[in-house]
Amino acid sequence: MSHDRPGPTSRALEWFGVDADWERVPADPRRTYRDDLWLGAAFVVLTLVGTELGRSIGYFEDVATPAWALYLLSVLGAAPLALRRRFPLVVLAVEYLHFLLVGIAVPMLTMLAPLQVAYFVALFTAVAWARDRRAMLLVVGAVLLVMFGWIVWQFAVGAGVEGIVEQMGLGDSRPGLFSPVIAMVAYTWLMNLAYFCGAIAAGQLRWHAARTRERLTEQAATIERQAAALQQQAVVRERLRIARELHDVVAHHVSVIGIQAAAARRLLAADPAAAAAPLATIEGQSREAVTQMRGLLGTLRGVDEDGGGRAGGARAGGARAGGARAPEPGLADVPALAEAADGLEVEVRIVEEPAGAAADVPASVGLSLYRTAQEALSNVRKHSTARRASVVVRVDRRPAQTGRPGAERFRHGYAEVEVLDDGRPRPGGAGTGMGLLGVRERVGTHGGVAEVGPRVTGGYRVRVRLPLPEDPS
Question: Where is the composition biased (Gly residues) (predicted)?
Answer without folding.
Answer: 309-321
